[in-house]
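Instructor's aside before we start: the two examples that follow are unrelated to each other. I chose them only because their records fit on one page, so don't look for a connection. First example below.
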Amino acid sequence: MAASGPIDWDQNGRIDAVRRRLDLNADGALNGLAGTPNEWSILVFNGGSHGKQIEIARLFTLARSQYRKMPVPELTEQQRSKIRQALPQP
């Protein structure tokens, strides 16, 4: 989905005509959210250690060396609940 496209927040298959304002990222502001990079497009399916035999200790070391923090944290259960409460109930 394009970062600038509409979002079907209540997953009913249509974009609601009523505009909603909600602090989705809990920063205290009611403004637009910035889009995040398309990380699906940079996944490597033909490389890495899949199918290779490697001792567990070395595997953990390798995993730690390749770990990087996501630019935006995922929603918490509390944030998800807050979003659902702001949407019209069917």
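Example two begins here.
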Amino acid sequence: MFPVRFDNIGSGRNRGVGSDLAQQLTYAFRLALARPPSPQELSILEGTFQQQLHNFEEDKKAAGELLSVGELPKPKNANEPLLAAWTGVANVLLNLNETITK
């Protein structure tokens, strides 16, 4: 598994994506799977995001270490726990059987 960052999703910089977490997660899900998530899938993603965010807020060093992996530099003034939580969600989405087999 490799870290993947969805830098723009959590920041709302994508056209048509609001600041609401459910909208952002739905957008990320559609990017990965080309379909909207079911209510159950969305609920699981929301829980995953919240848990990741909590973990990285508790351990900011781990968030920084995760974000230092890869070729892209961290965005300046990034909220590292938030970006690291989105990285976790991206990894979940990109490692789903449905994503891999399509």
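Residues 39-101 form one domain.
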